[in-house]
Amino acid sequence: MDFNFENELSGKIALVTGGTKGTGKAIADRLSKAGATVIVTARNKPEDQPGHIHFIAADLSRPEGTQKVVEEILAEYGHLDILINNMGSSETPGGGFTVLSDHDWEATIQTNLLAPVRLDRGFLPGMVGRGEGVIIHIASIQARLPLYDSTLPYAAAKAGLVNYSKSLSNEVSPKGVRVLTVSPGWIMTSASGRMIERIADSSGGTIEQATHSVMNALGGIPFGRPAWPEEVAELVGFLASPRAAYLTGTEYVIDGGTIPTI
């Protein structure tokens, strides 16, 4: 089969949640370069948002936010071909199980698990009706390698997302819709860079020392560095493309070798 990599997504409509910064922005740019019409969501529109990418302001942690996104996209474009459930965050306090409230758990699960579920529910009927579509859930290696002292609810929500993604694939793959999971390790986004600077400042060490301290907390990264957002975006771009037409129901880990088992 012959593919034109530059325009392989021409004519496709794609949504990337959390697509205004970090890995989400890199994914949106990658899909746009492949010819897709790209929509991104976030709570607030950044000042440097590209004009060729459709932005929708929405809080996806709330049901009305996901409903707004579904209704606006279907009203303007009629359907969605590619859904990248990238949005995710962990804002709970460190300190382990005892410091976490019901609100911490509920807010984290709303953002990292139920928001993708609601968006899938909104767009899947159309995909199934056309007999084609791609849904990619961005999870995390914390689903298998949780950091219990700092991100316990996040890790639990991502584990749920991985399981849900596999179950959903079993249901809709026979109907023409591919469902996949991408689980990155540590990614060097601007937020990660700021975290490293804070660690270096508080410890009195260098940026390099702070970087290695985070890698050590993860049990080490054999590749020797975090991933760049563009590296994760390249994997997502491939999985969303016709080149990956036979791939569904699978989790793809991109972590530089962090997870110590096969």
Automatic annotation (TrEMBL):
What protein is this chain from?
NAD(P)-dependent dehydrogenase, short-chain alcohol dehydrogenase family
Extract the PANTHER family matched here: 3-OXOACYL-(ACYL-CARRIER-PROTEIN) REDUCTASE, NADPH-DEPENDENT REDUCTASE BACG
Q: Which InterPro entries match?
A: NAD(P)-bd_dom_sf, Sc_DH/Rdtase_CS, SDR, SDR_fam
Q: Which Gene3D superfamilies does the UniProt entry name for this protein? A: NAD(P)-binding Rossmann-like Domain (3.40.50.720)
Family the entry assigns:
Belongs to the short-chain dehydrogenases/reductases (SDR) family.
One GO BP: monocarboxylic acid metabolic process
